[in-house]
Prior knowledge:
The protein is α+β, with helices and mostly antiparallel strands. The chain has one domain (about 5-35, about 70-140): Alpha-D-Glucose-1,6-Bisphosphate, Chain A, domain 4 (2-Layer Sandwich). Helix content is about 25%, strand content about 45%. It contains three helices and seven strands, in the order E-H-H-E-E-E-E-E-E-H. It has helices spanning about 15-25, 25-30, 125-140; strands at about 5-10, 40-45, 50-60, 65-75, 80-85, 95-105, 110-120. The chain has a seven-stranded antiparallel sheet. Helix 1 (about 15-25) crosses helix 2. The longest helix has 19 residues, at about 125-140. The model has no long low-confidence stretch (mean pLDDT about 95). Belongs to the AHA1 family.
Amino acid sequence: xxxxxxxxxxxxxxxxxxxxxxxxxxxxxxxxxxxxxxxxxxxxxxxxxxxxxxxxxxxxxxxxxxxxxxxxxxxxxxxxxxxxxxxxxxxxxxxxxxxxxxxxxxxxxxxxxxxxxxxxxxxxxxxxxxxxxxxxxxxxxxxxxxxx
Length: 148
């Protein structure tokens, strides 16, 4: 089975801790991960190594949705997240693995994302576009330093 891989790098004007938490807080994840035109819903999140998560993206235009879930393989606060994902749709077979590494830099945090095992039926350009939109939303969520 042929699969695709995408790699992204971004520097955010945020802290590594805040970015890390945005991946593991269900409300935050539902806010930033769905690309433009989609609404996210987290159904389950057990944010520990060996824990599982499940979520759904719903297309606001068509109402169609796709659900997926996986397992947390590695969680190092403020540094690394590694998790699997598998679509419920049998037309999107296989298991993906995403690795996110965070490194504090003088102006914020450098974030590298590698997503492997993307089903071949999904155009790699669509993955890059979706991730770029999601990372823009992640920046909008994590960069503001709001003091109460």
